[in-house]
Q: What sequence folds into this?
């Protein structure tokens, strides 16, 4: 189940030598921007420029108007055409699931800012242009058309969610533009191989296999499923049925919830009537937190288990007064408070530089690792990279160590990591 380090944290309620104490949510801080960053924010570009400390609450653009404008110039030819490399991102920065996008981007920016302070990649600065899609597929598609058209993004990076990425897959293939490190473990991005998609994280199937195996070993065989009613939830439900079948089991009950919804009383009642002793939850943190409260009000003692996409920080923030205690979450990156892992120590150091009051977490660490991974590929792709050269660079990464987090890809396998761990929330947060 949890690692020895994690069990120590859960048992003692404290962390050994992990830095400052818990601060406020950085996206709600309000401090002045440096002059250069203010100018960048005014053009809706979230940019990392040498010597510039990003503000905690940079301006994120609203939903882009749907535009079919043709890509022109170097971007149309799939090459980097200016001194800066533009990375396009569509993710939720407002609405119920906003913390997922904000945390992922904050971690990525911690690395990109440091990289640009060092001079960039082959002398080029990296600029992350982030557009808000509120975790709604129609807005993701609109944003993507803008990013690869008028905004001339070289690649796409750090999209959040299964239904949102599913909406843009045909466009990615038609434009031959890579999408790097989407925050989703869905099968549709892995089987069959998507030539333009490069996945950092393990699959939902791997996460749910780990969850179900642990539940069964613990004697919890009456397993129900709550799933989001979209491509993400359908993929998670399929994976759960598959994992249970390996043990000769089936879900004792299944219920759905709409994306971004907190109306979960009906689903909780439906599952509770089946008397489960565990529930696998396939949803983002707004629905998962609401469901947890609904089930607790019914007196259920079922073990609740979430996949990593739930957003650990968001779930903890949404459940107060010990309501989160005991809830399990599978994770696809190392423990963000374990400084014995070299890349985690680097992440903490740069997050402290990025934020006035550092706040660590699994989603921001994933963004940080994704940014590190992308940088390694860009270094390999050369001083004047094309998209095809970047694809070849990724596919040649058959043994890469980011500092205690190993990655392996090939032309036939675009999933870099199979790492999965389990964590369990306590009555207190792990740390900053």
A:
């Amino acid at each position: 189940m949890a690692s020895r380090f994690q069990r120590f944290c859960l048992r003692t309620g404290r962390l050994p030598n992990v830095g400052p104490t818990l601060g406020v949510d950085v996206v709600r801080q309000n401090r002045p921007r440096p002059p250069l960053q203010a100018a960048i924010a005014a053009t809706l570009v979230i940019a990392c420029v040498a010597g510039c400390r990003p503000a905690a609450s940079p301006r994120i653009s609203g939903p882009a108007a749907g535009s079919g404008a043709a890509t022109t110039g170097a971007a149309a030819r799939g090459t980097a055409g200016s001194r800066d490399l533009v990375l396009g991102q569509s993710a939720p920065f407002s609405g119920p699931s906003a913390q997922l996008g904000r945390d992922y981007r904050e971690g990525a920016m911690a690395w990109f800012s440091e990289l640009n302070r060092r001079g960039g990649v082959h002398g080029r600065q990296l600029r992350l242009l982030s557009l808000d899609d509120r975790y709604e597929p129609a807005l993701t598609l609109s944003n993507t058309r803008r990013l690869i058209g008028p905004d001339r993004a070289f690649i796409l990076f750090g999209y959040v969610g299964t239904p949102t990425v599913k909406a843009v897959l045909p466009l990615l293939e038609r434009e031959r533009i890579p999408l790097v490190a989407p925050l989703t473990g869905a099968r549709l991005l892995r089987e069959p191989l998507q030539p333009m998609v490069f996945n950092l994280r393990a699959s939902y199937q791997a996460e749910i296999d780990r969850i179900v195996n642990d539940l069964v070993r613990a004697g919890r065989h009456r397993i129900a499923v709550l799933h989001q009613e979209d491509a993400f939830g359908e993929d998670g439900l399929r994976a759960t049925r598959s994992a249970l079948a390996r043990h000769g089991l089936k879900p004792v009950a299944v219920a759905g919830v709409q994306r971004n919804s907190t109306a979960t009383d009906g689903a909780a009642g439906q599952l509770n009537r089946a008397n489960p002793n565990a529930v696998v939850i396939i949803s983002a943190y707004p629905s998962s937190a609401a469901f947890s409260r609904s089930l607790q009000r019914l007196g259920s003692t079922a073990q609740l288990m979430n996949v990593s996409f739930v957003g650990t920080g968001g779930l903890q923030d949404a459940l107060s007064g010990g309501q989160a205690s005991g809830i399990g979450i599978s994770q696809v990156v190392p423990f963000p408070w374990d400084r014995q892992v070299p890349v985690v120590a680097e992440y903490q150091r740069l997050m402290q530089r990025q934020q006035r009051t550092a706040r660590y977490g699994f989603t921001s660490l994933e963004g940080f690792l994704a940014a590190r991974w992308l940088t390694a590929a860009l270094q390999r792709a050369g001083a004047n990279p094309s998209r095809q050269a970047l694809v070849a660079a990724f596919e040649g990464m058959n043994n890469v160590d980011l500092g205690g987090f190993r990655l392996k890809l090939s032309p036939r396998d675009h999933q870099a990591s199979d790492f999965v761990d389990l964590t369990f929330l306590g009555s207190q947060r792990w740390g900053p």
